[in-house]
Amino acid sequence: MIELDDRLRVLQRAAREWGEELEELGAELDHDPDGVDRFTDVSAFRYVSRMMIPPEYQDSALHLSGHSFHGDRALERVVAVEALGRGDAGAFLAAPGPSLSGGLVALLGDTAQQKWFFEHFSDEPVWTFLGLTEPDHGSDASAMATTLTPEPGGDRATLTGEKRYVGNASRARLGTVFARTGPGPLGVSAVMVRTGTPGFHASPLPTIGLRGARVCAVRFDGVAVSGDQVLGRHLRASSRGMHAAVRMFNQFRPGVAALALGIAQAAHDYLSQHRSDLGPGGGHALADMEDRLVDTRQLVWRAAADVDHDPARGHLASAAKASAARLAEETTLRALELLGPGARFSHPRPEKLARDARGVEFMEGTTHVQRLNVAQGVVTGRIG
């Protein structure tokens, strides 16, 4: 059993208060995702905007009860993200900050690139995006069609192609994109992109859940990329491209699992508050949910600690993501069932939780992808 130390318990208590702010905010963003600019001063957004910024690029840490928090460790992040997801997952995903792009730049960027990227977050809220999944090929790197083509006679290249299901792209100022630069598994590179560059287009997609995340389709029509925007040029080819993507997802998957866990916990909380409205078997269902929440939380914490120890060890992170996503979906649907016919109309809170829970399945790889990762961990002996 993993138990939180005093420092992380302080963060957990604070994040639960921040999550309560997000619950009301999430309902508003569900109806008006473009209204997020009105809420950039909420405490949750201020914390999330620090996540994935290396401490050396932060002006100051968050201080609570004598403890400092930078958001740069997976275990710290999952403790906070569960509490924020318990408030509202869509609102959490709508927060500004470096997010996935920040993790990638921290992994691949040289000193100058990291300084350029992270200094954007020092003065005002800035949204970012990461482009990997494609409309016809998913996240299959071998079939990636987006290309980065060098221009003759200079240190410049042209980015052409499409990405799909990209969070926050329509409100982002900058982001990172994976593109093919040559054949084979080593022929993939990541580049930093300014969304104001001619040829960049982002269009919001209609979604049933997680509407605050502003999931988009993105098109690159000959976007100019300078040499200093290409990440990992100082590293050997085997450490760039999709290898970096795998390590980045290893770091973030425990957080996605924590987000799903927060959704499931919110459904349990709602049922506990409306126990008198539950149908037959409600008490037993609540007890079963509580047991599964405790077990899954331990798996999520263990996965985060594993990634903090070694970012290459992502097998438990995949197990945690698959388990928590399943728990979120089953718990929210069970909540609506227990609340009786018409619950989707008479209980808007669990109805929204059910919609958001389904969206988590498609974040950071579906359950099928996670099972393949876990199987590889078992075969190689990395998971007992």
Helix content: 40-55%
So what's the overall shape? globular
Main pleated sheet = 4 strands, antiparallel
**Strand percentage:** 5-15%
Keywords: FAD, Flavoprotein, Oxidoreductase
Family: Belongs to the acyl-CoA dehydrogenase family.
InterPro entries: Acyl-CoA_Oxase/DH_mid-dom, Acyl-CoA_Oxase/DH_mid-dom_sf, AcylCo_DH-like_C, AcylCo_DH/oxidase_C, AcylCoA_DH/ox_N_sf, AcylCoA_DH/oxidase_NM_dom_sf
Protein name: Acyl-CoA dehydrogenase family protein
Write the layout of secondary structure elements.
Elements: H1 6-31, H2 43-48, E1 62-64, E2 67-69, H3 74-87, H4 89-93, H5 99-108, H6 111-118, E3 128-131, E4 147-150, E5 156-166, E6 174-180, E7 188-194, E8 200-204, E9 216-226, H7 242-273, H8 282-309, H9 315-338, H10 343-346, H11 348-360, H12 367-379
Parallel strand pairs: 3-6
Antiparallel strand pairs: 1-2, 4-5, 5-9, 6-7, 8-9
Walk me through this protein's architecture.
With 384 residues, this protein is α+β, with helices and mostly antiparallel strands. Helices cover 48% and strands 14% of the residues. It contains 12 helices and 9 strands. The strands form 3 sheets. A 4-stranded antiparallel sheet has the order 4-5-9-8, with no helix packed on it. A hairpin with a 2-residue loop joins strand 1 and strand 2. The longest helix has 32 residues. The radius of gyration is 21 Å and the shape is globular. The model has no long low-confidence stretch (mean pLDDT 93).
